[in-house]
Specification:
By secondary structure, this protein is of the alpha/beta class. 27% of the residues lie in helices and 23% in strands. The protein contains 12 helices and 23 strands. Strands 2-15-17-16 form a 4-stranded mixed sheet. The protein has a 4-stranded mixed sheet with strand order 4-5-3-14, covered by helices on one side. It has a 4-stranded mixed sheet with strand order 6-7-9-8. Bound molecules: shikimate-3-phosphate and phosphoenolpyruvate (PEP). Shikimate-3-phosphate binds next to helix 3 and helix 5. This is 3-phosphoshikimate 1-carboxyvinyltransferase.
């Protein structure tokens, strides 16, 4: 073993000495868990969230809802130990809805889902709800939610920043109705307004006015989960106008919902099979899903892998070759760091397009990926809306992560093939994938 002289927050990324062969159970979806929490909090009766993701982003959402008076009871069930529970392992959260209470304070961390999904819900409380978070949260776009809430009748005090920190002065109810939003900076503006809309007096009609709309699958996820909770939703896919979503006012049902594995967080493990010419199975991969990570089946197949989805889950088998790719990732932007890592190890050039909005994610992901891969000897250039990646032989070094979980997992992927690579602050993976280092070492040890 190499003797790394490391500071505490430099993680020696393990090198893969052979083809990876493993089954990896990945934790639940962040996007599903945080939507489920909002919808359950607004429901007319209690509900269950089974196998929720328990990570920084989802615990921040749960804590925020608790401070707004929503009951969230956590239980660990071995199987059907919880009355009414379907057979299943792991943790369950019982959500006891309540009219949101104020005053309250909310720490959003750097969670886009918390900073965007909660202000509309807070507008239903009677009194001030103060929102603040990590320094980076002050830089992330929120204007779409703030302006729309004002247009729908809410009082929001942001001292002219158009961003955090801010206070929503709830009046106990919100008129709702039609509103225009430019969601080109984040699809979460649209999702945020739709999720709480069944509880607005007139529901909502959201019209996106911007030139581009990123992460459309995440808006479909919002619509799908609203409908499953009993909401009446018109969307472009259901024959409605393009770029317009309507949610009717009405009661939401308390559901019993099992959270799917986070397919975007399955990415580094699938990438490991691809780049080592091995085979990785992710159990419980859904046959039908709105998660954008499902696109990995197609993307990693185009990059040289072979994907089989069956009752065992999704199995990706690498061919020993890693092919470059020219692709628009606008729908699936959160997959970009992991794809960039694989692309840097490929045998031909890649062009990743349609992801200009990543400059305002957890960090400026386009700048960070360019800087960090190039520091290892890579040849990455930023384009107006993405990255051009020319594979080069890479050498070891420190891969900085800028408090970005997906930079950290991208560094781990590179480290499988690049000797002496150290990932700075691997703990930042806890934003959405707790225990990542343990899962990674478990995969390399072939544990299933
Ligand atoms: O609604 C969601 O759960 C998400 C939407 C996307 O945000 P953007 O549209 O801001 O990219 C995605 O990148 C993020 O990880 C999760
Ligand atoms: C962009 C992401 O997160 P957030 O929900 O904070 O926007 C992400 O997880 O890649």
């Amino acid at each position: 073993m190499t003797d790394h002289s490391l500071t505490a927050d430099h993680w020696p990324a393990p090198l893969a000495s052979e083809a990876v062969e493993a089954t990896v159970t990945v934790p639940g979806s962040k996007s599903v868990t945080n939507r489920a929490l909002i919808l359950a909090a607004l429901a007319a009766d209690p509900g269950w969230i089974r196998r929720p993701l328990r990570s920084r982003d989802t615990l921040l959402m749960a804590e925020a809802l608790r401070s707004l008076g929503i009951g969230i009871e956590e239980t660990v069930s071995s199987s059907s130990a919880v009355a009414g529970a379907p057979e299943g392992r792991g943790e369950s959260w019982r959500i006891i809805p309540a009219t949101p209470q104020a005053p309250a304070t909310v720490d959003v961390g750097n969670a886009g889902t918390v900073m965007r999904f909660l202000p509309p819900l807070a507008a239903l409380a009677e009194g001030p709800v103060r929102f603040d978070g990590d320094p980076r949260s002050h830089e992330r776009p929120l204007h779409g939610v703030i302006d729309a809430l004002r247009a729908l009748g809410a009082r929001v005090d942001d001292e002219g920043r158009g961003a955090l920190p801010l206070t929503v002065h709830g009046a106990g109810s919100l008129d709702g109705g039609p509103v225009e939003v430019d969601a080109s900076a984040s699809s979460q503006f649209v999702s945020a307004l739709l999720l709480s809309a069944p509880r607005f007096n007139q529901g909502v009609e959201v019209r996106h006015t911007g030139a581009v709309l990123p992460s459309l699958p995440h808006i479909r996820m919002t619509v799908d989960m609203l409908r499953r909770a009993g909401a009446q939703v018109d969307s472009p896919e259901s024959g409605g106008e393009p770029n317009v979503w309507r949610v009717a006012p009405g009661a939401l049902l308390g559901r019993d919902l099992v959270v799917e594995p986070d397919l975007s967080n399955a990415q580094p493990f699938l990438a490991a099979a691809l780049i080592t010419g091995g085979s990785v199975t992710i159990p419980d991969w859904p046959f039908h899903t709105t998660q954008p990570g499902d696109a990995l089946r197609e993307i990693f197949s185009a990059m040289g892998g072979d994907c089989v989805l069956d009752d065992r889950g999704l199995t990706l088998t690498g061919s020993g070759r890693i092919l470059g790719i020219d692709i628009d990732l606008g729908d699936v932007g959160e997959l970009t760091p992991g794809i960039a890592a694989v692309a840097a190890l490929a045998e031909s050039e890649s062009v990743l397009r349609g992801v200009a909005h990543l400059r305002l994610h957890e960090t400026d992901r386009l700048a960070a990926l360019t800087r960090e891969i190039n520091a290892l000897g890579g040849d990455v250039t930023e384009t107006a809306d993405g990255l051009r990646i020319r594979p080069r032989p890479l050498h070891g070094g420190v891969f900085h992560t800028y408090d970005d979980h997906r930079l950290a997992t991208a560094g781990a992927v590179l480290g499988l093939a690049v000797k002496d690579l150290e990932v700075e602050n691997i703990a930042t993976t806890g934003k959405t994938i707790p225990d990542f280092p343990e899962l990674w070492h478990g995969m390399l040890a072939g544990r299933g």
